[in-house]
Specification:
The chain is 41% helix and 16% strand. By secondary structure, it is an alpha/beta fold. It folds into 3 domains: 71 residues, MutS, DNA mismatch repair protein, domain I; 206 residues, Rossmann fold (3-Layer(aba) Sandwich), CATH 3.40.50.10810; 234 residues, Rossmann fold (3-Layer(aba) Sandwich), CATH 3.40.50.300. The longest helix is centred in the first third of the chain and has 21 residues.
Length: 556
Amino acid sequence: MQISKNNKNELVLTFDYNAALVEIVKHFDSRKYDNETKEWTVPVLHVVQVLDTLTPLGFHTSLEVLEEYDKAKKKKKKIKRIREGDFKDSEIEIFKLLNLPLFGFQEIGAGFLVATKSSLLGDEPGCGKSIQSIATVLIRKAKKILILCPSTLKLNWKDEIEKWASHKTSIVIGGDKKLRAKQWNQDVDFYIMNYELLLRDMDYINKIEWDFLIADEATRISNPKAKQSKNIKKIKAKYRIALTGTPLNNAVQDVWNILDFCQPNLLGTFWQFTQKYCDKDRFGGITGYKNLSELKKHISDNMLRRKKKDVLNELPDKLYETLYIEFDPEEKKIYEAIRDEIAADLNEYNINRVLKDRYLSNVLVKMVRLKQAADSLELVSEHTFSSKTNALKELLKDIIHKDDKALVFTQFSEMADILMRELKEYRPLLISGKVKQEDRHMNVDTFQNKEENKLMIMTEAGGFGLNLQRANYIIHYDLPWSISKMEQREGRAHRIGQTSNLTVYRLIAQDTVDEYVLKVLHKKQKLSEEILGDREKAKKIKISKADIRRMLKITK
């Protein structure tokens, strides 16, 4: 009885027929039987399991296989050591040289991704999976990185790269076929593309030798039968990383294709996986699960997952995430028309005179229409489409699970009504100026105590006097003009009685007034100061004529 290795990187098991041995071999994932040679083959990545099982039964092993075994055992020890946060001095020095603000658990995450070479990072949303991935890429000194993600996250990835790896170049792939062809021909480090373009751009993708392939929100590839899932596996890359806060989004079998993307043959074929870990009815439908402790142990070397409660002591009280959203052509057209109309109106009355401090509040009233256009075309036109609302739907799909709840803030009552309609699957509750006082109290009590109500939609009417500590996510659908109002919003959940860290999302429509409020206005003051001032602090207005000009694209 012999165990050898072939040129396909497979272990070859040679033995005379023995029913008991055959049953043992059938437990190895991705095993195959060759009728001609009468031999079994198993991918070499299972060498530890194969040798630990068969050598006590009298199998002889070639020197080449023993070398693979020793290498795999060392790798397992290294992964275990890193998972426990036990770094060698040389590894600590590498993190120091990165000069990234990584928490301890994030260093473990990056170290795990480096040690495994290709694996799944399944940390809960808000734990910083993107910065861990970027750290991994930098440690590996990768030159060509392809990031696949939902379209709503493309700009967010670019922002993260510019923030944490400013010496690296990046490009967002999008637009028509002609434009994308030009983009693919650019020589940059990071290429960021949404999943929907995968089928169209495979020819361009295959021309590049990839160091890293990163699949963000990897539940998008959990269906093994989908063309998208099949094509992403065809992309050749030295290392693969899958990122998702919900590795088991709906069912245990969801994890098979994601891990098969990271480590082909790790869990066998899909049929082998479901036979081993799923109960089926007579029609082949999955009715339940089995051997889950074995599955957990089997995938532990290739998947790392931490919940926020597990790393609570390391995280700040509030984690901030900015989600950038790209307009579709129609939204952009309408937004620019409104912006140009306001600019023309101000120019007509002499822009320099209009922009004196005492007139600024009137200018900002005019600009409310810009903020509405950035929220939803439904607020300013007959169109009902909104890229921002669609982005919010995708975000909630990823973050709202069994024990999670969220507050969504908007400054427009009409927008709150639209969100109530669009997000009805979450049984949202509403607090706005239209809601009576007694109904507000009832809604607060329902949100705090009933599990089925996952969402509270609020206007500035909910900025004071409400305790909503059950929320562990706050989403600014649009940004108020002042820091104090943002703090009031967040203070609804971030108060005594809150038992978990808060993740605060800011939804920003790219190249709109949203972006200027965030990047221009909010950076002009310390967080403790008013940006524009409330009515009682009108003298504290600090916005400049230059800021208004930039927002309205007035150059002269």
